[in-house]
Each structure stands twice: as C-alpha cells, then as structure tokens.
Design a protein that fits this description.
about 425 residues; Rossmann fold; five-stranded parallel beta sheet; elongated; alpha/beta
Length: about 425
C-alpha cells in the first residue's frame, strides 16, 4: 500500500510541476515557451509519458536487490572519479604540448568516463560478495554473515517445539520460513483428513507465534527456487543462503548431510538436553506394562525415556522407587534398566549388588555379541547363569504315506511295529 501511494504521488507531482511551468510562462518569453503555453497538452503529455516510462521500469523489476543497486551506484561513482583524474592528466598533457583538437579531446574524455564507469560497475557487481573486505561495515552480498540462519521445514513447524526453544532465548540468529513451506502447511490445513488438517493448523499457528515473539527475527523468504519438490527446494535454499536446516525428517537430514549442509534435528537436541542418568541413581516411576523378558516391567520418565524394571512384573500398575543399573542408547532414544529390590537396600548392599548387576550385564552383552557373530551359543560349564544347556529330544515327524511297487502301504515314521521303509516324496525329497 505504501509503494502504491508513492507511485500515485510521483505521477501527480510530475503533472503539478509541468502545469506550474506552463502557467508561469508570460508574454515576454520566447516563441517556444509561448507555444508550450498555447498547446499546454503537449508538455503535460510529455510529463505523463516520462512518468509512465519510470513506472514501467519499476513494475517490470519487482524483485530488486539492494546489493545490485548499491553495486551499480558505487561502481559508477568509482568510475567517474577515475575518469576525472584521467581527464585532469589529459588536460595537462594538452596544455604542455599545445595540442589544438578540443573536439577530439572532449570525445576522448567522454568515452573514457563511460568506459571507466562500465568497468567500475562490472567489477563491483562481480566481486560484491568479497567487497566487505575492502570497506568494513559496507556489505553488498545477500548472504547473511555471522551465525547461520535457521531454515525451518514443515516437520519442524508441525512439531511445535521450535517455538519453546525460541521462547527460551537460545535462538539468536534469523529464523527463515520459506514461502513454499507455508504453502505446504496451507495444503495440509485444507486436506480432508482430520489429522492432516490438525497438523496444518498447528504449523500455521507456530509460524504466527514465532512472528509475534519479540526476541526472534523471523523472515518469510519468497526467493524463487528451481526445484518443485519441497525437500529439494529446502536443500537448494539452504545451499544458496547458506543456512542451517532444522528438520525432523531423517531422509531430508541425510540428503542435507550428503550436500554438506549443516542440519539440526530437534529430537537430537532434546536427547542432548535430557538429564544425565548414572547407575545407582534412585528414580520414581510408574510401571504400566510387562516387558519382553520374563519378570520385567516397563515404565516411562516424564521426558519419555523408557525404563525397564528387571524384577518389576509383580508391581505392574504401581509407582515404585527404582535404582538404575545400566543404560543403553538406541536409535529410538535412551533405554534405562533398573531394579526394584535395590531400593530397600542400604548403601553398601546396594553398591555390591550394583557391581554384580553391571558385571552380569556386561557378560550377558558379550555373550549376545558372540551369538550374533557365530550364529549360536554354547555353554560348556562356563558358570554363566543366563545360558543353560538343555538336551532337546527331536520331534517325531509324521509324513505322508507312500505306496511301494508291490502295493504295500508304509508309514513315514517309526512306530510300535518296528522300523518302516522311509521314502521321499516329490514335494519333500528329504523326508
């Protein structure tokens, strides 16, 4: 609206200036100016044509870059200053040698000024990214200096934790939200699926919430990208700026890593901010369901960390004090192992039981690794309680009955009547 008002004011000012000039012409003026006064529509039309020409230039270049404009102006000024210096030298040479060719010398000066102005403009535009090294605090490059800006993708906005991170004051750099990401959120908000609609509305609400925060600099980037897919467009924009990509999409994060683009996964940040849990620490957890192994029960900490109580099966549905014995980092997050019986022990007994539990856990892990390498485990009196050698009697296989050449019917198993001739079948020749 402000730009439109300025454009209308520009056209009106051009007309007012030309009309005031026409009205100021008196009878003592020369014949040309008197002709302008009589045919007043000619200067007014010329003013409108000139205003329309500049308006066309303004409208045909909607995406103006301040870096390009500044480069052109500074390069032109540098070229004209160099032309003025050379013109002074040329004048001294002409006066010293008493050369009488004023028209030729003037043409040379003009061509020299145009050439130096052109050279200055092209040099500044081609080197504008490094020009800040020549003049400190003057920067023509579009790239943001200092900390890399954060480019948010759709998953980061739908997750909504980025707003809490920004509210904590941790984010000091510019937060960039591409326009095509907002368009994707709008498509989700207009979807027929209720879950998709809720995700789209939540993402748009987070954009509005970030814009209203005082300590966060949010920029809606409308730069054109050549890629159609949103993921590829994010990669292109992050490479061009350059910027750090904030996402929860594992595939997008891997592609960005291949393209040498720094990425920030909010899940990784949340895992890094979790409190450190060491063996021997007492925790208060509600056991809600059985575990995978016999006697185990599973509970969760407030931050979502899974806790496996190795002897907690009898206490399912209760909130108990547990003592952490070990931890394991998995792809889904951190996994804690704990015991209920250690909570009632004194410090010495708990320390001794904790050492035994850790030793047992390490030996069990080693045996599990050996099983993964060799394919099976064998126990030959090694004293490991978790591995027991049991003799298993093979199951009796009852196969199809086969008729031999004499027409006798035989079974495929050894029964009470004695051994039976076992023959293979087309379906199972090994039987």
């Amino acid at each position: 609206m402000l730009v439109r008002l300025i454009r209308v004011s520009f056209v009106a000012l051009m007309l007012i200036v030309m009309l005031l000039y026409v009205w100021s012409i008196n009878l003592n003026a020369d014949e040309m100016e008197i002709g302008f006064a009589k045919n007043w529509w000619m200067p007014v039309g010329a003013a409108l044509v000139l205003a329309g020409l500049f308006l066309a230039i303004d409208l045909l270049t909607p995406r103006k870059k301040i870096s390009t404009i500044s480069g052109v102006v500074f390069g032109l000024m540098a070229g004209l200053m160099a032309a003025w210096v050379f013109s002074t030298i040329i004048d001294l040479v002409v006066q010293s040698w008493d050369i009488e060719a004023e028209a030729f010398i003037s043409a040379v000066k003009v061509m020299l000024g145009v050439s130096l102005g052109f050279l200055g403009i092209t040099m500044v535009i081609q080197t504008q990214d490094e020009f800040r090294l020549v003049i400190p605090y003057v920067e023509f490059a579009k790239q943001m200096r200092g900390p890399l800006p954060l480019v948010l993708d759709t998953s980061a906005l739908i997750d909504a934790r980025i707003a809490d991170i920004a509210a904590s004051g941790l984010i000091q750099q510019t937060v960039v939200i591409p326009e095509f990401v907002i368009e994707e959120l709008q498509l989700l908000a207009d979807a027929r699926d209720r879950m998709k609609r809720n995700k789209g509305h939540r993402g748009l609400d987070i954009v509005t919430k970030l814009q209203r925060m005082n300590g966060v600099d949010v920029m809606i980037d409308a730069s054109p990208v050549s890629k159609k897919a949103v993921d590829l467009a994010l990669i292109e924009l992050s490479t061009r700026m350059p910027a750090m990509l904030v996402t929860l999409d594992i595939a997008l994060s891997r592609i960005a890593t291949i393209q040498k683009i720094p990425t920030l996964n909010i899940n990784d940040l949340a895992n890094a901010l979790k409190p450190v849990v060491i063996p021997g620490k007492m925790i208060h957890v509600e056991l809600i369901k059985p575990g995978e192994q016999h006697g185990q029960a599973v509970g969760y900490l407030p931050d979502g960390t899974m806790v496996v109580a190795e002897d907690g099966y009898p206490y399912i549905g209760q909130t108990r004090d547990l003592v952490i014995t070990s931890s394991m980092q998995t792809a889904a997050g951190r996994l804690l192992f704990a015991r209920v019986d250690m909570a009632d022990m004194d410090s010495d007994e708990r320390e001794h039981a904790l050492q035994e539990s850790q030793h047992h856990h390490h030996r069990r892990s080693d045996e599990h690794d050996n099983h993964g390498e060799h394919g099976d485990r064998h126990s030959h009196g090694s004293g490991i309680d978790s591995v027991v050698s049991v003799d298993v009697k093979p199951a009796t296989i009852s196969g199809p009955r086969v008729v031999d050449d004499e027409g006798d019917s035989t079974g495929s198993e050894t029964g009470s009547g004695g051994p039976v001739n076992l023959k293979g079948t087309p379906r199972n020749p090994r039987r």
